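Final report, closing paragraph on structural work. Over the funding period we assembled a curated collection of sequence-structure pairs, and we close with a single example.
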Amino acid sequence: MGKKDNNDWKDRLGVMYSTNPDYNYCTDQEPEQELLPPQQQKLRLRMEKNGRGGKTVTVISGFQGPDADMENLARTLKTFCGCGGSAKDGEIIIQGDFREKIKAKLISMGYSQTK
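Its predicted structure, as stored:
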């Protein structure tokens, strides 16, 4: 029973059995980045309008860490600004031009290298 529990991840990979004790079980997934402390994050803010149907958005790039943490930061900023947005492809997109407001909030949260 204990052996099955230790190799439970192999079942999720779809591997039935390997006779080679040195067989390397590999997946297509990339390992998630480690979360850097806020004071080491180098976040960059910019306003974009092109390719968005004339709508203005604030884009925050440079976040280094797991997607879940980036989504939590995006949720915090969306709530703070009272607007919509998303977090994908390593960028946080906030609807509207809130560069100064977001910069002040990020600095107060400890992201001291924000520009």
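The two ends are 54 Å apart (CA to CA). The longest strand covers residues 44-48. We thank the funder for supporting this effort.
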